[in-house]
Design brief:
This protein has five helices and four strands. By secondary structure, it is mainly α.
Length: 134
């Protein structure tokens, strides 16, 4: 249904509240973004790491590193996504809200051969994943 606005152009007319539609679009958009993030993280090989910002960029979400963190935090436990291979841009494992979560991530990385220095950093120059251009 179209209606006229004051400038004379025709716009879709809203009938009642369409907040449910906005919420549906937002959830679908988030789900699509999360799926792209998970697809990138699945490509990180064993023994390599990527930064939150790097994953965001590769997923087409440049500048949205936090969204990668949100996506990994909400990852269902039954999904085969190697979340532990994503670290911050300083080469550190980010602290978790749940106690011991960062220690688990470090253990998983060490099992894959990733080393940490005395300051608990991963040498990104050595271990950062550098994907080939597609």
């Amino acid at each position: 249904m179209l209606g006229n606005c004051s400038s004379g152009e025709r716009r879709p007319r809203t009938i009642g509240s369409n907040s449910w539609l906005r919420e549906t679009v937002r959830v679908e958009s988030r789900d699509n973004s999360y799926a792209r993030i998970y697809a990138v993280v699945r490509r990180i090989p064993k023994g390599r790491v990527a930064t939150y910002g790097q994953v965001a960029s590769l997923a087409g979400l440049g500048g949205h590193a936090r969204q990668v963190g949100y996506a990994l935090h909400s990852l269902p436990s039954d999904r085969a996504v190697p979340w532990h291979r994503v670290i911050n841009s300083r080469g550190l494992v980010s602290q978790r809200a749940e106690p011991g979560g960062d220690a688990i991530q470090r253990q998983l990385l060490e099992r894959e051969g990733v080393s940490f220095d005395a300051a608990d950093r991963v040498a990104l120059a050595v271990y950062q994943w550098r994907p080939r251009r597609r």
